[in-house]
Design a protein that fits this description.
43% helix, single chain, 127 residues
Length: 127
């Protein structure tokens, strides 16, 4: 068992399949965030690219459906992965999440497809 907590990027659909609908994107973000507690309970630190990218977009006066979004969302994940130790890929079609997985694999980082695959640093805590 590793004593160092991993910084784990949670990757999955955010804009994919939403046709720009804010409620659908919010539901996708909620699904990504639902994985945060199990990652944390396993002794690691979860991170979601949108937690960083969305405030960056807002500060530029843009949102997730603006043309600027592609210049922020994907590069944010790419830059974030330079600091991450692993990726948790949640189900669902997502170009961005697929790019995250490809980047992680190129960098030799583990890619997990379920929280149960993530090595726990200690006893897992119940929610």
């Amino acid at each position: 068992m590793n004593d160092k907590p991993m910084l784990i990027l949670i990757a999955g659909p955010y804009r994919s399949g939403t046709d720009g609908d804010p409620q659908s994107m919010a539901a996708n973000l909620a699904r990504l965030e639902a994985a945060a507690w199990p990652v944390f309970a396993a002794g690691h630190l979860p991170v979601i690219g949108e937690w960083i990218a969305l405030p960056v977009l807002r500060s530029a006066g843009a949102g997730p459906t603006d043309p600027l979004a592609d210049q922020v969302l994907y590069p944010t994940a790419e830059r974030l992965l330079a600091h991450c130790d692993a990726v948790l890929r949640l189900p669902g079609e997502s170009t961005g999440a697929d790019q995250d997985v490809a980047t992680a694999r190129r960098r030799g980082l583990p890619v997990y497809h379920g929280v149960e695959e993530i090595p726990a640093r200690g006893p897992r805590r119940a929610a």
